[in-house]
Design goal:
With 153 residues, this protein is mainly α. It has seven helices and two strands; from the N terminus they run ββααααααα. The chain is globular.
């Protein structure tokens, strides 16, 4: 079952607010730091969506590191959390969308690109069951902007 309802999570943030913070974090370092601090309270007993966003915070931090070792360390930690989120809720379109985004932009040499087609298919096939219009808008805008889907799809 696809679980996409607005949930209240750690620090009193709902899913739309957390998503808003994530998108701001992609724009500049200050928001990235705020987003990272916000999701640091997430642990293994948290919801899969929270684990996903914790992983995304680590991916975003990769851009801030100058040291390649630290970049790789955060990348691998983010990947581990994101894969755990997928494992816990494999039908969740938001989690699959986040993985699709990472795999679309990760350097190919890291070998993290093999599930893009699977994630895209799940997103398309579950589109009508996604009740969160904000999420649908974000997915559609991203996938159209990067040529990942056609308007018809």
């Amino acid at each position: 079952m696809l679980v996409m309802s607005t949930q209240v999570f750690a620090a009193g943030t709902d899913s739309v607010e957390l998503r808003r913070l994530y998108y701001k974090a992609t724009e500049n370092k200050e928001y990235c730091d705020q987003f990272y601090k916000k999701v640091m309270s997430v642990n293994e007993v948290s919801t899969p969506v929270l684990l996903c966003y914790r992983g995304m915070a680590l991916f975003l931090r990769c851009r801030q590191h100058l040291n390649p070792y630290h970049k790789l360390e955060d990348f691998n930690a983010g990947k581990k959390l994101l894969e755990e989120a997928v494992k816990l809720d494999p039908e969740n379109a938001e989690i699959r969308f986040m993985r699709f985004c990472v795999q679309s932009h990760a350097p190919r040499m890291l070998g993290y690109y093999g599930k893009k087609a699977e994630d895209k298919n799940l997103i398309i096939n579950s589109w009508k069951r996604i009740p969160d219009q904000d999420l649908k808008n974000k997915i559609k805008a991203y996938m159209l902007a990067y040529g990942s889907i056609s308007e018809k799809e």
